[in-house]
Amino acid sequence: MTNRIALIRHGQTEWSRSGQHTSTTDIDLTDEGVHQAMTIPSLLWGVELSPVTVWSSPRLRAQRTATLAGLHIDEVVPDLAEWAYGDYEGITSKQIHQTNPGWSIFKHGAPGGESPEQVADRCDRVLARAKDKLVDGDVALFCHGHISRVLAMRWLGLPVQHGGLIQMNPAAVTVLGTYHDEPCLDHANIIPFRPPHVGS
């Protein structure tokens, strides 16, 4: 099996739980987010991925997720920061749609923040560097929900506008691989199985 890239979203925060857009606001994980982060090693084991290169977003929530997953961060990469939401920082899509119906971060970007083209450029830079690291082994990128989706689209050669085609739950793993030497999504949005509730 050829070496692959794991996109790993940080564990749950108060704002990810409420659906508030979180980029520059540097908040920590909830207790649930801590638990989620600690399940990541089993997810990586399940997809037979062993990172030898680990990069993280500068945000606390991403770095703490990597640490709780038992992985040493080789480099903090500014380009892995979440999409800059500008005027939409801290508010939900439902609130945004009340004044801006039909808005999509992937199509329209954020006023006072980043455009889709700017985020695509960042993701292309990260992926170019990560591809070079694949000669040494698997790569893990600890980052965020929207930036992860753009990374996946750009790996496939698709425009940012298609970012809504995949989901990225807190602490989920998406694996970028190849099929017959062409880029593919090897796995998408993997989260731990929850045991059935006894007595329900």
TrEMBL record:
One Pfam family per UniProt: His_Phos_1
Cross-referenced SMART domains: PGAM
Active site: H10 (tele-phosphohistidine intermediate), E82 (proton donor/acceptor)
Entry-linked InterPro entries: His_Pase_superF_clade-1 (IPR013078), His_PPase_superfam (IPR029033), PGM_Phosphatase (IPR050275)
Binding-site residues for substrate, renumbered to this chain: R61, E82, W83, A84, Y85
GO biological process assignments: regulation of phosphorelay signal transduction system
GO molecular function, one term: protein histidine phosphatase activity
Top-level taxon of the source organism: Bacteria
Protein name (database record): Phosphoglycerate mutase
Organism: Nakamurella multipartita (strain ATCC 700099 / DSM 44233 / CIP 104796 / JCM 9543 / NBRC 105858 / Y-104)
